[in-house]
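agent: user wants the structure for DUF1203 domain-containing protein from Hoeflea phototrophica. delegating to structure tool.
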Amino acid sequence: MHIRFEPMDTATATHLRNGGLDSNGNPPEQKISDGNGVPCRVCMKMVGKGEPYLVAGWRPFSATHAYAETGPVFLHAHDCTAGPVPSGTLPEFLESPDYILRGYDADERIVYGTGGVIKLEDIQARMEELLSQPGVEAVHIRSSRNNCYHCKAVRAD
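agent: tool returned. relaying tokens verbatim.
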């Protein structure tokens, strides 16, 4: 199965970089990376030491509803874009030993029974398993320590 990883959309990133309000109605916070665990949700790479980045509340859903979680995300303060991630490869910014994976249906509701903490080396196989299930249209990848959203995986076929 070919899987596509979807980062934060460019329009949202541009809005935040231009001082627009985040999903909580606040301006993004500006920080300088210490080089330790600052994954950019746009280019799906780590923000390097000394580089400026933004912290913003983001809801990666098309509408608000009971399952539309809002949480903190990081993004480079400057323009950056995601490059293609070859099939069978995880985005570069996934460096932790494990992540929460959770399946969502076409209406962006959680598909119960799909969530779990998965070791990094088992993520690809679990995503394929989840995306093969009837009703699962996307898989969200979140931090297992802080529940922060990282990216969405969908079938690329």
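agent: one observation worth passing along. The CA atoms of residues 53 and 76 lie 4 Å apart.
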